[in-house]
């Protein structure tokens, strides 16, 4: 599997800038920009999953010895494990769009995609970005070939999403040759068959650091398999360290800089998790559509009932928004990489890309995991009683999906992070949120304008998206003015979560609209009718959600005349033309049922 380069023209916008800028459709990467080489990567991965993994799901679910390891070795031979690893260390060095496509295809079976992510994603990225030359040469080629299985070890019994609370210690031995690790890790993916463990521990009790621990280290042991609700095919164990000596040269990065390793790795993991979830939604649409035409009730196919069609349509509409965001973000990351000056260290520049788009990565994770949860729940409902039976794939998909809202930092934590990162960028002058909010207040005080629309086919949708951003500026500005530094405190999390929901929906709305506009510019409007229907249905619902969340925020941070003024402004920004959501969803559902698949693939 060879390195690819994104060839479509698009701009590397700053992370979070979607709230204060309005890019042109031609500057945004969409699935229609995926090139043939990237499609071949997706096809190769899909064939491997369907031909090699899916037939062995029952063996994998019951942890038949050697099956998962055998599949990983086959994947390694095809280049499916080395996407994040540069070619000089035996990997494929894939661009972000190619990695996104690969991740999507792995979603057909959650147990394997989780194993893959634990090994090729968060189990590899720390070494790629922070390893010494010696560490990279020693481990990365063997990881790419599955000669070594790796895993990421951060969580502890008392420290899940709170990495600062970890208790595992690392003390330098008296002879200065080893780090002595003591402590316990919990919920470690690939724990039972990993050969290399990326372990986080505190030096001197407070300096979070990272270490590469090899299987067989004295004093290091692996616990029994956890009894999980889902992703049963993957390995999840506890780890124990009792005076375990780790060679001094196996310190990864620097003492006290382990949190940098952890957070950058999680940024990458969050984005990838959103990609896996997107693939899962598409798979659920496929099996649910097929079943709805096989099953009859009251003398009709299930697919003929309006509420069944509504469920299928809503799955696809949410997937369309998610897909639009994910590929837009992947395109920005690739554009950021392409902007590197000659002589720039590519690995270090990619790490900067992860930092730059940490907000978009958290959005990918939250939006993706919740879209998949919605889809599998509706999938079970379409299958009815059979959906509750383990012989049908939606039962397993339902169980497997639930962990995604907990993985890589809970969705609650990620909602807090989205706003914290936005505010940090605003206070640092990276994003002009503050001047934009001040300008908006001037607009509100000046009263409504009576400018005529542009007459463009998507003028109304552009206005809805622009107003969604204004709502974020209005609500976030009011929250910061009222709460200031207290906004980050636990008692105001409801406000922060509501602001985060507004920001996420604004990004999803704009990404969906830009994708349709770009498609419309390439071919006649008639060719994008179903895509436009999905976009318009999504914008309508998202605008309703944004108005609701805004009322929550304003009610919590304003009162009296100020509250009344802001509510009037919100009413102005929320005004839009009525539509026919049933008709839009019927159009999307008909397209799904015509092919028994997600209808917007690479369009």
Overall description:
- By secondary structure, this protein is α+β, with helices and mostly antiparallel strands.
- It folds into 4 domains: 17-149, Acyl-CoA dehydrogenase/oxidase, N-terminal domain (Butyryl-Coa Dehydrogenase, subunit A, domain 1, Orthogonal Bundle), CATH 1.10.540.10; 151-256, Butyryl-CoA Dehydrogenase, subunit A, domain 2, CATH 2.40.110; 259-409, Butyryl-CoA Dehydrogenase, subunit A, domain 3 (Up-down Bundle); 412-591, Butyryl-CoA Dehydrogenase, subunit A, domain 3 (Up-down Bundle), CATH 1.20.140.10.
- The protein has 19 helices and 10 strands.
- Helix 5 (110-121) runs antiparallel to helix 8 (258-294).
- The two termini are 24 Å apart.
């Amino acid at each position: 599997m060879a390195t690819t380069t994104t060839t479509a023209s698009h701009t590397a916008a700053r992370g979070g800038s979607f709230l204060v800028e309005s890019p042109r459709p031609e500057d945004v990467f969409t699935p229609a920009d995926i090139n043939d080489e990237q499609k071949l990567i997706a096809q190769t991965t899909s064939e491997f999953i369907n031909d090699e993994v899916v037939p062995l799901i029952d063996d994998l679910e019951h942890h038949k010895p050697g099956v998962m390891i055998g599949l990983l070795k086959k994947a390694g031979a095809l280049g499916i494990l080395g996407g994040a690893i540069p070619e000089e260390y035996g990997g494929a060095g894939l661009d972000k769009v190619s990695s996104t496509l690969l991740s999507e295809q792995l979603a057909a079976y959650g147990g394997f995609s989780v194993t893959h992510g634990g090994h090729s994603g968060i189990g590899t990225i720390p070494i790629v970005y922070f390893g010494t030359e010696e560490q990279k040469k020693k481990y990365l080629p063997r990881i790419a070939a599955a000669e070594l299985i790796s895993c990421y070890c951060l969580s502890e019994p008392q420290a899940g999403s709170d990495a600062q609370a970890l208790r595992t210690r690392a003390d330098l031995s008296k002879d200065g040759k080893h780090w002595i690790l003591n402590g316990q890790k919990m919920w470690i993916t690939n724990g039972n068959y990993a050969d290399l463990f990326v372990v986080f521990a505190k030096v001197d009790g407070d300096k979070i650091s990272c270490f590469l621990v090899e299987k067989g280290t004295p004093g290091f042991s692996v616990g029994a398999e956890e009894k999980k609700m889902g992703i049963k095919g993957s390995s999840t164990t506890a780890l124990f360290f009792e005076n375990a000596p780790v060679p001094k040269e196996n310190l990864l990065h620097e003492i006290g800089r382990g949190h940098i390793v952890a957070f950058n790795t999680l940024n990458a993991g969050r984005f990838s998790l959103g990609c896996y979830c997107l693939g899962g939604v598409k798979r659920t649409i496929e099996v649910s559509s097929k079943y709805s035409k096989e099953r009859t009730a009251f003398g009709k196919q299930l697919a003929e009932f309006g509420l069944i069609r509504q469920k299928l349509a809503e799955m696809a509409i949410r997937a369309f928004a998610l897909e639009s965001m994910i590929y837009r973000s992947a395109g920005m990351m690739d554009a950021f990489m392409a902007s590197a000056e000659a002589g720039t260290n590519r690995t270090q520049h990619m790490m900067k890309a992860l930092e730059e788009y940490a907000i978009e990565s958290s959005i990918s994770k939250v939006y993706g995991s919740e879209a998949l949860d919605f889809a599998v729940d509706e999938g079970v409902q379409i299958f009815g009683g059979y959906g509750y039976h383990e012989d049908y794939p939606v039962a397993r998909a339902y169980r497997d999906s639930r962990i995604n809202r907990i993985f890589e930092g809970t969705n609650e934590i990620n909602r807090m992070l989205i706003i914290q990162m936005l505010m940090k960028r605003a206070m640092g002058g990276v994003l002009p949120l503050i001047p934009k909010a001040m300008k908006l207040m001037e607009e509100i005080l000046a009263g409504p304008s009576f400018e005529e629309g542009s007459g463009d086919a998507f003028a109304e949708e552009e206005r809805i998206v622009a107003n969604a951003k204004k709502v974020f500026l209005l609500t976030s500005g009011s929250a910061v003015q009222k709460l200031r530094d207290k906004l980050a405190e636990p008692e105001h999390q409801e406000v922060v979560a509501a602001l985060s929901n507004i920001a996420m929906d604004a990004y999803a709305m704009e990404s969906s609209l830009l994708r349709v506009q770009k498609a419309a510019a390439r071919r006649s409007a008639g060719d994008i009718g179903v895509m436009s229907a999905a976009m318009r249905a999504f914008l309508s619902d998202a605008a309703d959600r944004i108005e609701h969340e805004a009322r929550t925020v304003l009610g919590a941070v304003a009162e009296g005349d100020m509250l009344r003024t802001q509510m009037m402004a919100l009413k102005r920004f929320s005004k839009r033309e009525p539509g026919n959501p049933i008709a839009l969803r019927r159009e999307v559902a008909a397209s799904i049922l015509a092919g028994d698949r997600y209808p917007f693939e690479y369009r």
